[in-house]
């Protein structure tokens, strides 16, 4: 029945043909041979109609994979050769496109001996559609040809195609541009350096096809291009954009900046949206191939983010997290905190893209973009997110009218809050969520607060939710709007699952109290029905305890990991604060040390001027020059040994004007002798004056006090000597 319907009118024939091609895979070989292959031999003859021969070509391509190679060689290949030599170009073109399937069925050897000669002959056919079919089949079968066939047969044909495409046969340009990447990489091993450069230049020429006049070139050539030519040139440049990743592999990623960057720039700034759209789709592939050199294309990323067409933006943000991660980790400038700080226009471009999507009517693009922006905590710093993106998400939740967009913004905001590294900022955001959403005047905002709490339970630990959001959620049981209370009832089982006993026993009591109030005071029938259903579900729930349980092991382990990360963020914040404080202290200490050195240098210079005056003003006129020198040496020795461990706290000694203060430390005094202090006396004074590190002997006051003490000691010594002489004389008189 199918075979009869295949060769009737074209509409019915196409329907039956599609049905037959779909079921051939499931039919047994004997059925195919008797019911399809045998009638096909007669229907493929030259005497049959054009439609009959075209149908025969398509069926032969499908049958090639169902039989063994010897059956194909004996029964199918003769029909294939006959149809390749058909008088009608439509039949030759159709049969040429089926040669790829036949080659896969007969193997490499028969393909080389039977299929390749047919392709060479069809490539020189007078019909352009036949030549195009032969070219595309050659490209698809490159892997089945060895190096000799590629260099001696395929390469000359490809070169002739490229030469004819601009001169006499522009119809092949679109197909040639589409397959050029696959062709260049398939023939890469047999290219000479000259041929390699020629094909690269040919690709560059195709990338700017139709733009010469717009760029100011060839003004005297074609002035007016037909609409058909313009569409053809746009298709060529679009195909070149599609093949750009393959061409980077062709030239080697190391040579990208030298060989292909200018072409990449032109394609990203192409005046036609389909070209830029294709570049946006393939941008991630380009970034992956460039790897460590990905930073070279950051300007084009910013350009596409700011593109006037939302289609281009939609195509780019599909892989935006992966692109930004490659930019952050694979770029040449690898900073420790944020690698993208070297791209100054990136953050403004991201904010501009979001605002453009928000003002458009394409809310799905806006939703998709907000979902992708959740990757930013892994890319840029916490402060940049807080000041440029986080508050924007809160604004979208409160002002946007599209529910999926609001939910996407709420989830992204929770992700930002999850990875925020400053506790003060986290508390501020939590407070805004509770006040502006949970306690907001609009019931719509209160509904979004419940959505946000659901995301918080997903992303944060149980203890975090119980600490900040458990009680604000329960307060909504008294909400005047029934829809809010209804949504809360649906959320209560998840809320209860965050509790742990006995730690959260008081919260559990609050939950039970709210449920009792709902059961007793709820007047709305729909809400009351949901409350009763929720109560039954809550009764069946088991509350997890602080210790691990087998049935909750995985969930508890995941919650413990979240809680550990939250504590880690707090510890990191504390370490950063301590680091900043230490840096501030070290800076202050260095400033103080610098000022102290300057002050000491000034006082030492002043002391050098004042010491001779204080010595000359001494009360002992009989002091010789040597005595003056000794005192000067003594004062200088005190100043130079101020930091010695033994004499580090000697500054308090000279401040006492009485001679008794020195009685325990002076071992002996003579005229013109230098004061000698015992080590023990210094040790006792050092314990009482441990905080004084400066040595005051350099001041004039200290030197004058020392001179006065010396003069008093000398007078006392003189009186003692005279008294001792008088006593000795009396003794002599009494004992003659």
Question: Could you characterize what this model shows?
Answer:
The protein has 736 residues and is mostly helical. Among the domains are: 1-164, Leucine-rich Repeat Variant (Alpha Horseshoe), CATH 1.25.10; 381-573, Leucine-rich Repeat Variant. The chain is built from 35 helices and 2 strands. The protein has helices at residues 2-6, 10-23, 29-43, 50-63, 69-84, 89-106, 108-123, 128-140, 147-167, 173-186, 193-207, 227-242, 244-251, 256-259, 261-268, 273-281, 283-290, 298-305, 310-316, 320-330, 346-359, 363-372, 382-399, 403-418, 423-438, 443-459, 462-468, 470-474, 482-497, 505-521, 525-540, 553-616, 625-640, 679-688, 700-734; strands at residues 500-501, 544-545. The chain has a two-stranded parallel sheet with strand order 1-2. Helix 2 runs parallel beside helix 4 (50-63) and helix 24 (403-418) packs across helix 26. The radius of gyration is 47 Å and the shape is extended. It starts with a helix and ends with a helix.
